[in-house]
Design brief:
single chain; Alpha-Beta Plaits; nine-stranded mixed β-sheet; elongated; binds iron/sulfur cluster
């Protein structure tokens, strides 16, 4: 069983091109399992052309249910519910507004006649799909649902199991933006993180926050500057910050509308074009592959592809 490498691609803010870069790396890597952990807005499937194989319910929250036959109309549940989820009818009998209920269970605990039970409710769904580049595990959290960290963990665990069962050496994680619970769930225990940023003031601010999270969890980190030619001063500020912290800037990718054109076509940028951006992404993957200790695929004739298969006896450089 090969050692499994997990790489999380994250960004402090949305819109930096994280998912486009993740999709491109998935194509270049091959021999991998892809985990779309941006469960609030999963969109890796837009460029990886998934074919759905499995659908699973995700039940992580609970809702209080009142048995009207048992309810004596004492009103205690309405008094203790801090979320205003209990509605009392004119005759005193109580009912619960499911969208307002947080599933805390206080009402069930307090009800003198045991008329309230808590039932698990559907919070979202997670899926396993086939793509031309590897298995994709992805998910969709229901509107207004919490527990996104738990759903991220479910996606990661399943991706890891599939990788191990299929003998793949790499799980590539498209992480959510921000620094909250789902980001922490995406980062914990990974081999390394790739932080995608861009040279703008808000992106640098958010990069700083996400780098602090990586530092806190002791996750080896590389930085990718996308749209690197947007602002030279800010690009230099990112380079200086990374140098100060001993972080490698693994790629600087200039603005190129080829990303948008590839997205419109429903493909990754490395499938859409063979220009400068795919070349830079190829170099990025090669650099990452080297750090991970993954073996290069050798092809006759064409340009060398790079497989996510662990190189025998060579530990990763992290
Ligand atoms: S606490 Fe129990 S008995 Fe009292 S109103 Fe609520 S459900 Fe009915
Ligand atoms: S479970 Fe909590 S939130 Fe839901 S109705 Fe009961 S007290 Fe209110």
């Amino acid at each position: 069983m090969p050692d499994l490498r997990e790489v999380a691609i994250i960004s402090g803010k949305g819109g930096t091109g994280k998912t486009s870069i993740c999709g491109a790396l998935a194509v270049l890597a091959e021999e991998l399992v892809i985990a779309d952990c941006d469960v609030d807005a999963a969109n890796l499937g837009l460029i990886l052309r998934p074919s759905l194989r499995e659908t699973h319910d995700f039940t992580a929250s609970r809702t209080a249910i009142i048995d009207a036959q048992e309810c004596s109309g004492c009103g205690r549940c309405a008094e203790v519910c801090r979320f205003g989820a209990v509605i009392q009818a004119a005759d005193g009998t109580a009912d619960v507004e499911p969208l307002a209920c947080e599933g805390c269970g206080v009402c069930a605990h307090i009800c003198p006649v045991g008329a309230i039970r808590l039932e698990e409710s559907l919070s979202g769904r997670w899926f396993v799909s086939d793509t031309p580049h590897g298995t994709l595990v992805h998910a969709r959290l229901g509107p207004g649902e919490e527990n996104s960290g738990k759903l991220v963990t479910t996606v990661r665990n399943r991706a890891r199991e599939i990788a191990q069962a299929d003998g793949k050496g790499l799980v590539l994680i498209d992480g959510p933006p921000g620094i909250g619970c789902p980001v922490i769930a995406s980062l914990s225990g990974v081999t390394c993180a790739l932080v995608v940023t861009e040279p703008t003031v808000p992106a640098i601010h958010d990069m700083d926050r996400v780098l602090a999270v990586c530092r806190h969890f002791d996750v080896p980190t590389l930085v990718v500057v996308n749209r690197s030619d947007l602002d030279e001063g800010n690009r230099r500020a990112i380079a200086a910050r990374c140098a100060r912290e001993g972080l490698e800037v693994a790629a600087e990718i200039p603005y190129d509308p080829v990303f948008t054109r590839a997205m419109v076509e429903g493909r990754t940028v490395v499938e859409h074009s063979d220009g400068e951006v795919p070349r830079l992404l190829g170099s990025l993957w090669e650099r990452l592959r080297g750090r991970l200790g993954l073996r290069a695929r050798l092809e006759c004739g064409g340009r060398p592809g790079l497989r996510g298969r662990p190189e025998e006896g060579r530990p990763g450089g992290f």
